[in-house]
Write a structure and sequence with these properties.
single chain, about 300 residues, alpha/beta, seven-stranded mixed sheet, five-stranded mixed sheet, globular
Amino acid sequence: MSCLEARRARLPAGTTCFRWLDGELPGVTVDRFDDVAVLSFYRPAPGDEVQRLGEALARVGALRAVYVKHRPREARRTGAGPLDALAPAAPVVGAPVDALETQELATRFLIRPGNGLSVGLYLDARAARAFVLAEARGRRVLNLFAYTCGFGLAALRGGAARAVNVDASRKVLDWGEDNLRRNGLPVDRYDFIAGDAFEWLARLAKKEERFDLVVLDPPGFATTKSSRFSAQRDYHQLAAAASRLVAPGGLLLAMCNVEALRLADFAAQLSRGLAARLARQVKVFGASDVDFAQPSALKCLVYELR
């Protein structure tokens, strides 16, 4: 059985997007969204290698298009480099695909494969979205650093009483609203907040808002108007601020995919940040072993707060 067939056979029901290659080729990953693939290089790659690999993927996987992303470590840290060079808008193989709809856990998502380095869904967080889907019923959910609102969508599909999404970009929140509509869910614009997540933590606390499930999925590095955030250095401060919004008996889902931050150190940061609350760690997991190399860079820790 080929790698492609083996992964497909183990995918959860209602899932047509997954990581096809993760570690089989040095410095390369391939994400598949139905019949479109995103080929990512984490090392220098000459154009002829990119072309050859793209053509091979299209042939083996019966793809209509292959897009390429160059993800050097310095670009992940600083955003350095011209975007059209790091993530060409046109596919390396096949005809352009402006957008397509994919499914994860029977949830519909809009994917834009030529949309820079981020195409609309981070596949490594599937297990985390499954957790929210399973735990959200009746809960008030706060989804910080929401991107295209995958966690908010999972919460509402799971029966959440409310899901508030906060992200710095109105553009990606609009994308998230589109995702809700694709799943037959109503959109309340009041629950899609464009703004600095760090500032909104303070504003919501001042309003004495409380949530039964808070999701933290910050970038590894971020610059705000008043500060610079590094997950390795500052996650405890983020956890402390978020903990003030968690209702008694509520859950905090904290996530980090900075490879250099070890699980033990991440847990230590969270313990430090949650010291003011009685916190019990209830779950630890990462990216699914169905399609991601283990141990995964993504770390997900869930705490119940009293």
